[in-house]
Each structure stands twice: as C-alpha cells, then as structure tokens.
Write a structure and sequence with these properties.
Number of domains: 1
Structural class: alpha+beta
Oligomer: single chain
Order of helices and strands: HEEHHEEEEEEHEEEHEEEEEEEEEEEH
Radius of gyration: 26 Å
Distance between the termini: 92 Å
Number of helices: 6
C-alpha cells in the first residue's frame, strides 16, 4: 500500500500583490521619462537631419544654377522681381525650386511639364461675375505688446468662375507631403500634413539670406545698411552665396517654425503671411519699433518687410481668433493665457524642442539656447551687416 503526499500551493496574498503592482508602477515611472527623452532626442535628430538636407539642397541648386533659389516666385529671374506669372518658368517658394535636389523630383516634373504644355504657372479663372469690396486696414496686437497696422486687400474678384490650376497649384503637386517637410514633435501639425490643398512645413528659409536687397540709403539699424524698402518683398530676386559678406558659417539659412502659428499655416510650396525673416502685410508708417523690425519711413505693404525677430522655444500653440464684419477682418482676440505664457507669434520661428535648431549657410546645423541675445541673433540673420556675432553664439 503506497502513500501519496500532496503539497498545498501557496497563493499571493493581497498585500504581496499590491507591493508587486507598486514596484511595477515605480519602475514604469522611472523608465517613462527616459523613454520620452530618447523619443525626443530621436525627433530632434530627425529635425536637424531634415534641415541639413534642405540646406544641402540649396547648395546643390546654387552649384547648378549659380545662385540660391528665389524666395518666392519664378526661377530663373530675368528682372529684379520674381513674381512673374503666365510664363513657362517654375513658380513657387524656395522649397519648390530645390525639390529635384531633395528626392522630390517626380512632383516637380509634373508641375514643370504642365507649365511647359500650357504656358501658365499659377491658376486662372474664367467666366463668372465681378465682385469688389473696398480695401481697408486693421490693427493687431502681438503677445509682446507691439501693435501693427495690417493691410486688408480689396476683395476684387469673381464669383461663379471656373478655375484652372497650373504648375504647383495642381492638387497632385500641392498636396505632396514628405518626411523632410515636418518635425514629428510639432504640436500644431495637421494630422494629414495639409492645410486645405497645400502641404504644410516645419522649416522656413531666412528671407534676409536668400533674397534681401542691398540698400544704399545709409539707414542703419543694428548696423545693417543692406535693409532697404524694396517694393519686391518676398518676390525679390535671389542672391548668391558670395553676397553673404559676413561669411556663410555666420549666417542663418533655415530655421524651424510651427506649422500653424497664430492661425497662420506655414506652407511648404507657397510662403505666405508672416514667415521666417519677413513680416507680411505691415503698412508704411506703422510703428515698427519692436526689436528686430526695420523702422522704415516707407515700406512695401503686401509683399512684406524684413525682420530678425528672435525665435521662440516651446511656445504655447495657442491661437488668436478673428471675426469678420462686413467683409473686414476685425482685431484678432488673443487667448487670455497669452498674458502669462509665451504664445506662438507668427512673425518668429518656433521649436518644440528645448533648443532651437538652425541650418547655417555653409550647410552645417547647430542648436541655439533660448538665452541667446537678440542682437546676436539679429547679426546671424543679417548676411551683410559687417558685425561680429556675440560671445553667446
């Protein structure tokens, strides 16, 4: 007769289970910040790599054509004004012109073939009835407290017209979204990377480097005599790297931006509104007294005036809301939190990272601390002011 011994399995007590759960929670709490840091480091690396590729694209363009691309308009430019429509030339922003050099040659060629076949490079409308509203102006107060008078163009146009798109205005081209266009950490990026029919972007070129006109009026602000009240604004003809008298290693070429800042989307193929290095829509005679805005006695209205306003590090992606009354845009109302938080200002560059990444005109990429002085930043944005960068560079 055999005997069998049985062992009673011991289960976890409730207290032991709670202790295990608590230990796991502590470990997760310790690991989560580390995982987030690794993820953010990877995102920042991707951003700097994007900017590097964009800068090299500008260099490759320059090597082939002898100048940097037009900031906005056609290339090649036969006059001082790049806003030439109805010609068999590519029309678009600087990003468009370097697309063949950043592995986006296919959509570029679609646009170019369409332009050659049709002899038009933007969009045109036919039919419909004419409409017209008087032009006006409104004032805008930005988070830093400065107030600007903004032109509101007249509403002359047509209703019921048939519109035909050419070049980059074809949706097969304008909706092109590529990894090189965006920063994965941008809190304002649309889910699909589009604002309507246009791809948005997290990177913009410094207008002062690509196309700033050299003024001879002797007017100096922070020492830069090259700022002049050119009526061309964003449509100024492009410049060469040899025009960067201060040295390509001391000049900012590309900076980071929020894709949607202050209700203004940054578009990859069509620079609009307030962009990096230039402020659009400010009228002559407005109080351009904010540090970084050229205090012209006269200035172009709708094509923009240059600025060197310092970048923003991790600003709040809060928006101003606009109302329209009788066809006129009223003064935007800022989010009340803008009184205590650094809110996104569309005249400046922004970054979601702890430091601000830039691509310099020599093709190198570096990051800048938020403690950088405004004057140092201004000199880095101006390619011909003849002034040395500060010790905090």
């Amino acid at each position: 007769m055999s005997t069998h011994s049985t062992k009673r399995l011991r289960a976890f007590t409730l207290i032991e289970l709670l202790v295990v759960i608590a230990i796991i929670a502590v470990l997760v709490g310790l690991l989560l910040p580390a995982v987030q840091k690794v993820r953010e480091a990877a995102a920042r690396t991707r951003c700097t790599n994007n900017m590097k590729q964009l800068a090299l694209g500008v260099h490759d363009f320059h090597s082939q054509y002898g100048s940097m691309p037009s900031y906005y308009g056609v290339y090649p430019v036969t006059t001082a004004h790049a806003n030439q429509t109805g010609v068999k030339k590519m029309y678009g922003g600087w990003f468009v012109h370097i697309m063949p050099f950043i592995e986006l040659g296919a959509p570029y060629q679609i646009a170019m073939d369409n332009i050659i076949d049709n002899g038009a490079n933007t969009s045109s409308s036919s039919g419909g009835s004419s409409t017209s509203t008087s032009g006006s102006s409104t004032t805008v107060t930005y988070p830093d407290g400065t107030t600007y008078t903004i032109d509101i163009p007249d509403g002359t146009g047509t209703t019921g017209a048939t519109t035909t798109n050419y070049g980059i205005f074809q949706t097969t081209v304008s909706k092109t979204v590529a990894r090189i266009m965006y920063c994965p950490s941008d809190p304002t990026r649309p889910t699909n990377g589009l604002n309507g029919n246009w791809a948005t972007t997290s990177y913009q070129a410094n207008w002062n480097a690509l196309g700033d006109s050299i003024g001879l009026n002797g007017s100096a602000y922070l020492g830069e005599a090259e700022w002049s009240p050119s009526t061309h604004g964003i449509y100024i003809a492009p410049r060469k790297f040899s025009d960067i008298a201060d040295g390509v290693s001391n000049t900012v070429l590309i900076g980071e931006v929020y894709q949607n800042c202050d209700n203004q989307f940054r578009l990859a193929m069509k620079p609009n509104g307030n962009s990096f290095g230039i402020t659009g829509g400010a009228r002559a005679g407005s109080p351009y007294n904010s540090p970084g805005i050229k205090p012209y006695s006269s200035a172009p209205s709708n094509n923009g005036i240059p600025n060197v306003l310092k970048f923003q590090v991790q600003p709040q992606p809060l928006k101003k809301t606009e109302t329209i009354k009788d066809g006129v845009v009223q003064t935007p109302k800022a989010d009340p939190r803008c009184k205590t938080l650094d809110c996104c200002d569309s005249r400046q560059g922004q970054t979601p990272h702890a430091v601000y990444p830039v691509a310099l005109a020599d093709g190198s990429v570096r990051t800048l601390s938020d403690s950088l002085m405004q004057d140092t930043w201004s000199h880095a944005m101006l390619p011909r002011d003849g002034l040395e960068l500060g010790s905090d560079w």
